[in-house]
Amino acid sequence: MTMRPFRGHGIALALLLPLLLLLSLEPQLSLGGGGDGVCELSVRRQDVIYNYSLASPTSKYPHGVLSEDGFYKVVVNDTSLWFQLCDQMIFNHDPPRCFGCQDCGGPLHCGTACSALVASNVGGYPVCTTIGRSSDLYIALIDQKYPLKGVLVKSSSFGTQDNCSLSVSIFCDSNEVRVPNSLNITGKCDYAVALRHPSGCAKVIYVNGRGWGLFGTVLMIILCFLVGYILIGTVYRFFFQGIHGAEAIPNLDFWLSLPHRAKNMLGNFARRLSGYGRDNRGSYAPVN
């Protein structure tokens, strides 16, 4: 077969150069999230790391798990609960109207200086109690045995009379958001709600050789580029240049010569190693 000059050397080199560059870099692993660490959690289970970043923006949810209204609201019987995750509340509409809001913004800005506030009917009047502050935030897994289930965010407020808290279970749901519509109360002022949100899903990182890894990912990208290049080139030559049969494959001679080239490279490498070994046998080598 007559070898034609290969015109795709530049393309092949352009595909191989990123692979060589990435392989020359030392892979690094970060166990912490970005930003200031608010509402972020990183948990390692054997060779798997689960990273949660609740406040990080996504394409569908630019505020992450935070409510775009500035607050979540749950009303059950005579109890109203307002809360915001990972930040203080903001009220552009429907602000809390209750007594006893001095430690959470005061009567004129009730709810704007804390992350969770509850109003209960006492003697016919709504009375507010601060049950969460963004400065006192705790985040953990909902289930230690199943990290992918989601996370629990707990905020608290230590008042002069009562120590109150709010626990929000954020279950992983990659398809939709379900806001809380029920409220659980334990003790005097410990509240708990649950919601489902894509931000409650962990980003999984495999370490110690599990998963694709850097090499496998880059190799797959290179293979996809090569397959796409051959496929598009074959379609173009077949339909637009009228080349049929195996000759429609672009740079066919080059692909067919690859095994021979690889064999020659391995042979040259083996000869160099054997020559290096003969030249470095040392002073105890036999002399004829």
TrEMBL record:
Principal subcellular localisation of the protein: membrane
Membrane protein topology class: Single-pass membrane protein
Signal peptide: 1-32
UniProt-listed Pfam families: ATG27
Key words of the record: Membrane, Signal, Transmembrane, Transmembrane helix
UniProt keyword ATP-binding present: no
Residues spanning the membrane: 211-232
InterPro entries: Autophagy-rel_prot_27 (IPR018939)
Keyword Isomerase recorded: no
This protein's name: Autophagy-related protein 27
